Amino acid sequence: MMMRTKSTARLGLILLIIALLLPSVLASPNQKVVYVAKFEGVITSYSVDQFSRYIETAERNNAEALIIEIDTPGGNGQAMQEIIQRIKESKVPVIIYVYPPGAIAASAGTYIALGSHLIAMAPSTSIGACEPILGYSSNGSIVKAPEKIRNFYIAYIKSLAEESGRNVTAAEKFITEDLSLTPEEALRANVIELVANDVSDLLKKANGMKTKIPVKGKGYVTLNFTDVKIVEIGPSFKDVIVQYISDPTVAYILINIGMLGLIFGFLTPGWHVPETVGAILLVLGIIGLGYFGYNAAGLILLILAILFFIAEALTPTFGLFTVAGAVTMILGGILLFGGGNEYLIQRSTFSTLRLVIIVIAVLLALFFAFGVSAVIRDRRRKAQTGKEELIGEVGQVVQELNPEGMIRIRGELWRAESKTGERIGVGEKVRVVEVRGLTLIVVREGEHPDEKKEV
Hints:
By secondary structure, the protein is α/β, with parallel strands linked by helices. It folds into three domains: 28-135 and 146-235, Alpha-Beta Complex (2-enoyl-CoA Hydratase, Chain A, domain 1), CATH 3.90.226.10; 241-380; 386-444, CATH 2.40.50.140. 48% of the residues lie in helices and 17% in strands. It has helices at 2-27, 45-60, 77-88, 108-114, 147-164, 168-176, 183-188, 199-206, 237-245, 248-267, 273-288, 294-314, 320-337, 347-380, and strands at residues 33-40, 65-71, 94-98, 104-106, 118-121, 126-128, 133-136, 142-144, 180-181, 194-195, 229-233, 394-399, 404-409, 412-418, 429-436, 439-444. It has a six-stranded parallel sheet, sandwiched between helices.
């Protein structure tokens, strides 16, 4: 009776646990997810890939929304337009969040915000200042864009504001007056939709809001952030690298140091360190200017790696070009293939391919390292060319040496002279110890060159 009671109690406990766990297990596949990504730095061609990767990740997982925390001073106009177009094609709402406190969404960043489904700002941030410029003059002053370009961007930013129902007048002043707004000013001017202290506050305040532009395939979406799970998407390794070198100041410094390295290396031949480092820095600086995408940048680095390996084969540097080639090959392979659907391969494949890239680079480096070792050993040998190679060789007397005569060595007939002056008969073996013009100086095989016969 007692055993039956224990069994019943155990069964009841198991059923209770299953009843408690079942709702969470059943609910997990339908858990609503909001992805939170981060973008910092100048907007370049690489930024298009980064934004696209964030959006595709959210789309692939059927997220409720994608929040992109942004902090940018602006950047390339063409890249900005491509990012906006990608946001418009997104199948999930994209919320641009100017965050953290102190962050800015200036110039191209403002356009991207106005092209998004919802805009939020954290306290102590700013948005605006969109005057298009061509760059900076030698004295540091701003070179403003021509009127034609300026008018184009005015029309473009106004169309973004009109499409989303935001303040068109303020959007125009972002360019014409270089207007910048605080979060409170932007909210009052109907430029943004809300001010939030953090992501949790943003989700709470945005819950129930309707997107300012339609989501592809869904139209205008009413956001539902009740009981959502927050998943963060971090920048990839290549994103971090490009973020640093794409800073205009860093890119400019890299290009100048690279050029100086090349010049110094060519003027002072030696171990090729200056020109090797200079070539790498120059290429990184050019890539950092942002005129290439990840794929093009990867190809450039791979081509540079091949040039380093060829240089090692033609002018051995005892491993310097080999190391430079291996490093640039690994970086080029990672940038070329990327790690998401918007690149050449799937993310799952990339983890394996990345290992293959590193292994191949190491194997190539080892191959050239062994080749360099062989070159070093060969250079340490005593130089022997032409007739000098015959020293130490053994031949046979075909015409008596008394003290001169003829010997056959390596199938060739040579005039020879006995070093000791003694007579050496036909058929005897002799060894070459010296070369004088076209005459080989020999001794009887087995004798030391300095030995003298007793009379």
